[in-house]
C-alpha cells in the first residue's frame, strides 16, 4: 500500500521534472529565435 503511494508520487515528480525541462528548452529556443531576428 505505502510502496504503491511512494511509486506514484515519485512518478509524478519525475513527470514534473520532465515537463519543466522540456518547457525550459522550448523557452530557450523561442528566445534564441527571437534574438536571431
TrEMBL record:
Keywords: Kinase, Transferase. One of its GO terms (molecular function) is kinase activity. This is Sensor kinase protein. It comes from Burkholderia thailandensis.
